[in-house]
Specification:
two-stranded antiparallel ribbon, globular, mainly alpha, about 450 residues, Glycosyltransferase, single chain
Length: about 450
Amino acid sequence: MTAPGPAAPAVTGDGGGPAEADQLRRLAVATLDGNWEHDHTVPSRTLYPHQWSWDSAFIAIGLAHIRPERAWQELRTLFAAQWADGRMPHIVFNPRLRVEAYFPGPEFWGSDRADDAPAAATSGIVQPPVHALAAWLVHRRAPSAASRAALAELYPALVAQQRYLAERRDVAGGGLACVVHPWESGLDNSPAWDEPMAAVPADAAVMRAYTRHDTVHADAAHRPTDLDYARYLAMVESYREHRYRDDDLARWHPFLVECPLFNAARGAAEHALADIATVIGVDPAPHRDRARRITEALVGRLFDPVTGTFQPRDVRADRLVPARTALGLTPLILPDLPPRQAAAVVTEACSARFGLAPRMDRPLPSHDRTASDFEPLRYWRGPSWMNLNWLLWRGLRSHGRPDLAAGLRRSMIDLVAGAGCHEYFHPDTGAGLGSAAFGWTAALLLDALASGDAGRGGAAEA
């Protein structure tokens, strides 16, 4: 089990007042300080001791409220490990740690076999590109000549990240990027991946050759099964054997899925890049055009008018995955999502499946509460996560639902007030699960505490 982190204060409601809100801020700052590792923040000291891609983006958003210079350092350190082809790997390994500190580690990934890999040891897959949005929000929180210079420094890397996804990962040619592994989606163990993963050849016996690190620090009943893990490794091995090249993925790679969250993040990134371009004196029009085309592709390829939600598309089978998960709600972060689809997403979020009606005063579960495979304790198959709540909160604000956004914000704050900065939470009881001192939970708590709800939102809002 995980080691305990800083204790949560006894606070209820919207921070409970100035004194209680200050207690929560101190808890969040202590968590982030405890996870700081010389030039970056680890998600947790136990389960995740290296630097993770989208974790660092969320962490930078929180750091902007307390230490802006550290927020920029977080992003600079991450992008120092960007590949020559533009991909931002999902893990950057800390060479100071022993090899057995995490599995699968750098020796399993073997990124040095790839032509485009950096000198640093990294994984070979990516995560949702929330980094441009993070950079823009860091600047908006603490604008200065230094932050404008930081935006100008990061801009080429952020553009290269987007170009990689558009040019190398649009396997179906419909304008959406494919994920080649469930880990790339960020929702590693979501039921959304069960059907596409069933076609991945693997045997649970494969796991006998390896020692899982996650089940040493967390209850195995809360983590992916050994069979799922064997399939995860099989997908890495397939990609690694091709030296992480994206040529002709449809011919040889076993898992190719267009994910709503991943592509919504791409669209949000283009909106943020348009704002960044304006600040640094670059033409924003190409970014706005790309954002529009991504939104159109999302609506055209992933929105199911029958269910009224966005669903992943299994590119190999050329069909939408039927599982109704929180992934389907995340396109609400797109400020140009058409009103019809935005209203449908809000209706889905308020339904019994996600249980947020009437005022969204309960945390968002990661999977349909009414589904037979809903598991409130197992990783991404039901528990509530601060980053999913945060994304939906932003989306509700930008689409004119401050009433629902306010309730969701209160529920986010209440989760940490009751259980501390846990990795994830039981969606009904609020009990803390996973790592007890988790970076993005602390960081996004700071953002929720600092941000109001009325009349604000959109890609550019802090």
